[in-house]
Amino acid sequence: MSGMRNMWQLSGQILRKQKPSVITDYSYFVNDLAKGRKPSPLRELMRMLASASSNVIFLAEGLPHSDTHPFNEARFDLKDGTSITLSGKLLTSALQYGPTEGHPDLLQKLRQFQERFHNPPGFDDRDVIATVGGQDGLCKTIELCMDFGDPVIVPSPTYSGVLAMMRPYRPKFVTAAEDKYGFCPYKLREAINKYWSHGNSVKAPKLLYLNPTASNPSGTVMPIERKKEIYEIACENNLLILEDDPYYFLHFDNSEPQSFLSLDEEGRVVRFDSFSKVFSSGLRLGFMTGPRPLVQAIEYHMQASVLHTSSLSQIIALQLLNQLGWDGFIKYMKKIRQFYMERRNHMSEVASKHLQDRAEWTVPDGGMFLWIKVKGVLDVYEMVMSRGVHTKGVMFVPGHAFMPDPTKPCPYIRASYSLASYEDMDKGFARLAELIDEEQHH
Ligand code: PMP
Questions:
Q1: Best of 138, 274, 340 to mutate for ligand 1, by most ligand atoms within 8 A of CB?
Q2: In this model, does residue 288 exceed pLDDT 60?
Q3: In the chain, what percentage of residues exceed pLDDT 70?
Q4: Can you spell out the DSSP letters for 35-60?
Q5: What GO molecular functions are on record for this protein (predicted)?
Q6: Prediction pTM value
C-alpha cells in the first residue's frame, strides 16, 4: 500500500471525527496539461464588455457587426400557446459572441436554479459555467484531471459516453456493480480495497464518476442514504465526485432527489446538469457547477476550444426559464416525467408479455431505458448487432457499450422507450423473443 494512500486514509479518519475540512488547493486533482492553460486576454475583455458601462468606447474585440446579420426577428411558438420573440438587443446578443462562462443573465438564472434545487453548502465559493451539453463539461473535466494510466472509479454499467472520454488515457477502471438502487457503497469500498490489495497499485484513484438519477443504462435512482455513505467514502479516499445528472427531473417519484452537490461540505463535487432531456438536446446546452478553481480551469479550456456555448441556445433557454417561472418549470418537469413514466409502464408490460422466461430486468425508476439481462445467452453482441438488425429488423444497444471492459462476454441489452410507438414496442420485443429463442437453440 502506498504512502500516499496511508496519508489520505489517515486524513479521512481525522475528517470523520472533526468538522469536515474544505478543500482549498485543487492542484492534486489537476494534471500538468491543464496547469499549462492560461487565461486569454481577449476573452477576459469579452467578460469585461458584458458588465462595462455604456460610456466605455469599445475598440477591442473583432465582433461582427449586427447590421451584417441576415436575421431581423426570431419567434418560437410554444406548445402552450405563448411565444418567445427575439428582436433588437436581445436578438443581437443571441447572434453575437459572448463571454466564455456564459451569458451573464443566464448564469444568474442558473445560480438561482442550483440554489433552488440543491442549495449547495458554501455556494459563494463555487462557480457555474454554461457548457455544450453536459457531455462537454464532463469531457473537459476528464481532460482536466486524468493522466495516462490513472485509476478511475466508475459503476458497472456506466454511461458509454464517459467510458469513451476516459479510454484514451488507458485508465485502470476500478468498478463496482450497481444493484436495483444504483451504485452500492459497500461494493465501492470492496472495489477500492481490492484495488489497493493488488501488489502493483501505486496511484490513488482521484475520480469517482456517478450518474445518480435514472442512470443510463440501468434506470436506477440512488437513495439519499447511499449518497451520504458514498460521499463519506469519497472524503476518506480524497476523491472528486463527478455527478453527471442529466436525468435529474426524469425520475418517477414525487419529489426531486437530493443531490451530491447538496451534501458537498468539502468542495469535492462537480455537478453536470443539462437541458437536453428537458428542453431540447439540439440546443446543446448544459451547465457545470463546482469549486471555483476547477470551473475556472474549464473556462480556460473553453477559451481555447469552443470560445463559449451557443449564444442563441443560451438566450432561448433563458427566455424559456423566465417565461415559465420556477413553478411553471416544475409543472413542466412533472409533465415530462408523466410522459416517460407512461412509456416505461408500457414497455414493462410488453417485456413481461414477451420476455417472461427469456430475460430479467428491473422496472426502471426513471429515465428512458430498460436494462435487460438475457437468460441462457452468454454474450449478446452478435445477436444484437448482426442478426437483430439484419435478419429481424430490430435495434437495441448491446450491453458491452456500457461495460468498462467491453471484451468480456455480456448478456445485457439496453432498450429505449423514448421514441417507439406502443405498437413498435410490442413488435420489437416479439422479435427480441424470437432472437433469444434462436440463440438459445443455436
Ligand atoms: N450523461 C449521460 C448519462 C447521458 O445519458 C447523456 C446523454 N446521452 C449525457 C451525459 C450527455 O448529454 P448532453 O451532452 O446532451 O447534455
A1: 274
A2: yes
A3: 95
A4: HT----HHHHHHHHHHH--TTS----
A5: kynurenine-oxoglutarate transaminase activity; pyridoxal phosphate binding
A6: 0.94
